[in-house]
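Researcher: Structure prediction, please.
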Amino acid sequence: MTIPAIGAVSGALPSLPTLPSAGTPGIVPSSAGGDFGSLLAKGIGQVESAQNTADSLAVKAATGDLTDIHSYTIAATQASLMTELATAIRTKGIDAFNQIMGMQA
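Model: Predicted structure follows.
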């Protein structure tokens, strides 16, 4: 039994989203607000893409068309982690909003 190289398995899966840091060349902090919205939409799109990939691989695994079950396992775990991260970010955002709204002027 041979184990495929990591690059062979992970090359077929979408990469995890990365957020640019303020020190990244070409990234200038802005107060416009449009940047946050586009990053949020991009992140949600990547979560949806990961879930769709995991779903399609699950169907292939169930019908017997998937020869490498590891790719499904990796895709399902990746989609689950991305969903958990998005949920945690949403919860922190709501908590911050509620805390700001509770401040007295």
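Model: The CA atoms of residues 9 and 73 lie 11 Å apart.
Researcher: Thanks, that helps.
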